[in-house]
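Hi Y.,

Following your request, here is the sequence exactly as I used it, all 692 residues.
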Amino acid sequence: MGFTTPLALFGLFLAAAPFVAHFTKRSNLIEAALPTIALVRKAKAAHRKKFNLVDLLLLIARVLVITTCVVGAAEPYVVTRLAYGDGHPLSLALVLDDSMSMLQQHEGATALTNAAARAEEVIQSLPQHSEVTVIAAGVPARVLSRRSTELLPLTEMVRSIASLETTGRGTELPEALHLARRELAASKLSRRRTLVLSDFAGTDWTTADWNDLDRVDLERFGAEGTVFNASVYPTKIPIHPGEDGSLQINFEVRTSGANRGEFPVGLYEENEKRVETNVVVEDGIGQGTFSLSSFKSSEPKLSLRLEIEDALGVDNRHDLLIRHVEPPRILLVSGDPSASGLQDEIGFLKLALQSGESERSTVSLRSIDQGRLSTRDIAQADVIVMANCVVPPEALAREIRQRVQRGAGLLIGAGHQTHAQALNHAFGPILPARVRPPIGVRLDSWQPQKSARPPLFVGLKIEKHPYLKLSPKGLEAVRIHRTMGLEPHPQRGRVAASFVDDSAALVVGPAGKGQVALLSLTLDSDWSDLPLRPGYVPLMLKLISWLSPRAMQQTPSYASGAPVQLALERGAEHVQVTTPGGQIHHVTKDHVTEDHAFTASHASATFTETVAPGTYLVHSRSHESEPSSHSFLVVPPTAESALTSHALPERSPQDADATSDKNAQIPLESNVFALAGFLLIAEGLLRLRRPF
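Below is the corresponding structure, written out as tokens. Let me know if you'd prefer a different format.
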């Protein structure tokens, strides 16, 4: 303990004043014997001791009041060792990295455990009236606790983060710093700091902009430099059929801290090892292939496992979900066939689908002239494309309607043979829009000497759709000369693409268990130059894939921490999701929504507890259908496996000194003066009890 103004302690001599006043007052009293006093002397004798005690307490209280006031004026303080800060109240934004790389082992514990312990130490060392906000830097960056002066609950929150055993989150430190900036901006305290606890792996943070933050302090956890770690991931196209009918699985082994070596990898089905191999790594990467001809189930759950010990164990396993999905059977019906390939109504579409087979699962294409269309052709098709077709006879039209309502897809392209009234009559119950007669440029006003026919519209706009994710790239300069009018159905029709005047170009909608799409343009270059534009191929591939019932059965994968939209049966009421660690989460009925504009047979729900990488099982049941189940994958980012810590930006000596342990003076004058106030109150109460 010390004093900032020790000379003020000479004022302690004033504490003698109450003694002098007390005894001087007693000595000046003149005693006189009065008869009346003698009569009551015996009655008052019992109270004398009590009054003497009150006098003594008054003396002590007055001495202590003077003493505490003098000590307070000397500005006392105590010297303590602080874990962070300078002992003054401050507003602190605590940024804690909870990404996958923070699970690396270092000095007998994970970097995340050490960082959380440091965060708890910092919170407990802050003086009274300080406020803290806790921000997690794992994807997505999020505020775990807004600014609060209640520090005890914050320490409990940090401890829960330290107990995290597995995570596949990436790092989103720039967004976390943005959240820290926003939280500190609302603080009323003049002292503001940001403390970042991270391994700073995978990114060169020297290029980050730290200048617009209030005093940023950086602390690294985990080993510095490059740490040995290996990971296994499937390649971009991981699965394809082999020539002998087997299934080949391609994968990569990536390393940091060891550019070459031989690493054992096993392929497991459930928990049984099916096959193993050694992968030779050169320059930090090596590739391998597994081949299997049989599985235990029709939808096997496989996992690639790297059988070594390294700094990070989470990325030594990568799950795979295999589904034996037959290629969708696409029936292309041409209303105006031609011997020349691209002159045919379906020529451009056929070429687009064939060019996309290397980027997606193969498709089964079959072309047919409309005059040869039969009920057998319709029954065997998963997607029916009608290009510039006249309305088929009622029997075939009925077969098409029934096939679509059982789950097939239907795409109708416009053309000079398309009769609006007949089309509405034949397919009205399943069409997402009412068809209107074509409109276009008047040929009598077109002057051939000006080379090209003037366009009716230029460019296509892609409208937002919850499931059909089309890209506008390559469609901005499409020249349209003629279109078929489309009036979307108010309940089941949804515009997926439009013209510049906001009229519908592509309308989609459900029909029973199937989907129907109406295109107001021809599928060839007769009414527009759409087939000649770079956006035509991806547009057709997306559209046909979405129309195909089999395309919706592919198992998706999601980034760790990202919300997952669960596809459920309509009317689903009881939904539960089992995580890779075996935890069961129940999705309540309030979270299940139905989009009738998209489909009449499916619902959706949002699931957000996707921290752990691996396979998630979804079970649902409803009153309208049998219980169903499906799976989805959560995968970690490959960048988190590269445990290379980069140099941190240089800081000023003042910033560097803030994060180190140091001695600090904690002022006590406010506490001492508060004690003096309580003593004054006690002295006043004692005087009230003393008779005059």
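The longest helix spans residues 35-73.

Thanks again,
Q.
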